[in-house]
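Question (not urgent): is this output format expected?
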Amino acid sequence: MTPLWLNDAKVPARLRLTPGLRFDTVVIGGGLTGLVTALLLAESGVEVAVVEGRRLGAGTTGATTGKISLLQGTRAQRIAARHSDRTVTEYVEANRAGQQWLLRYCEEHALPVQRVPALTYAQTEDEIPAVRAELQATRAAGLDTYPVDDLDVPFPFHGAVGLADQAQLDPMTLLATLAVDVEAHAAPIFESTIAHGVHHRDDDDLVIDTEHGELATHTIILATGTPMLDRGGFFARLTAQRSYLTAFQVAEPIRREIFISAGQPTRSLRYVPGDDGDLLLVGGNGHVVGRAGSTSRLVDDLAEWTRTWFPSAEPLQSWSAQDYHPIDELPYVGPLLPGRERILVATGYAKWGLTNGIAAALALAGRINGKPPRWSGAIASWRPAELKAIPSAAQTNSAVALRLSTGWLRMARSGYGTIPAEGCGHVERHGVQPTAVSTVAGKTTEVSAICPHLYGIVRWNDAEKSWDCPLHGSRFTADGTLLDGPATASLPLISGPAAVPVTDPPRGGPTTVLPKKI
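Got this back:
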């Protein structure tokens, strides 16, 4: 499941870390937030470096839909339900600042961007109230949104709210340009360098322990999907979600708007320009990681839906992305722990990272330079208004507790099973050991079924051939290698093909691994 954007991506590999170096600031994570933050700091004279555990764009940025929109599905009304009108307006201002910075950067560097209207549409009559509520909420927040009663589209459409002059792009072209720009400002990027830990040194520096040696710094920025440090409890303040995308070749005309449905199941559409004609990109069917049953059925469902309304549609490739939804609807950008400025974090973009991610970079750079944007309080990592999210947090974590208990109860009743068929996996009990057994590429492998984060029992993801934890979204390959946090270690191999050290893991995994304690 390789993202479309990686087909022709021209992103040369960078060297791994040379141990013994020191920088004023180290950004961990080579996605959009990490690279833009590094660039902003370097431009202001800060000595900065980027450390990437895999390759640039290996995480969410490289798998995004590429939409750059201030109309974000039903986000405005969801935020307004929990926060003041001023907070919603500041959230929009933050995203507008991110959008403007990005579009200006693309123009200055001659990067192709398609300017298009954005639409949040009703798939059924039941979704019409949500569309109307989004129109009201976005207008109150200062957006020039407008109602759309009818539109010539082949799929079910019962009205929409629209916003003109939004945009879309190829995210890997953007990352490649940003990386060159960062290095041109004397800020090195180290790839294939997994960070294992952080400790304090006698001279008050922070030292990042990596697989290739130590890296000293004054300030650390965790620009990964979810913080790999449990301090701050962000794993309990976020819901890890996975969603799917498929690129299609179609004979039917493709409209030039970007669409997202107001209800479930989500349907997200955009066109992708190409030398051999435009492609149709359809996304949706998001779910909490590890809680979807057969994920391959969700991918198939997107194809079936598309062929229903675009009969000529031929799927070219499918992929997925992992995003993190904050319990109180706003991103978390700022200190990992209240009042401590040495380790900063940015997370919780709720699938709108191309604007939120850059807003986070602007806020982080402003915080370090002593000039935070006026809207930065709305997306702060610690804010008094989060007390209102306690019911959501309780509901989220009660679901986690349920998954934890049911996973172990299921183990108590299971025993040895049969060898899984090709592409399949199941969890069984070997004595007292919960064991995850799978067969991929003709090789049957057994690993521990216990997620090392908070000891949930993993579940098989048949679309991506991975083991996913239903508690907080940690993911592992069939041989147990860590893909996504907040876990900080792989699943121990019990039996099967010998594990091969991964120096250049497949794209789509975490950008770094950090321990729970520093």
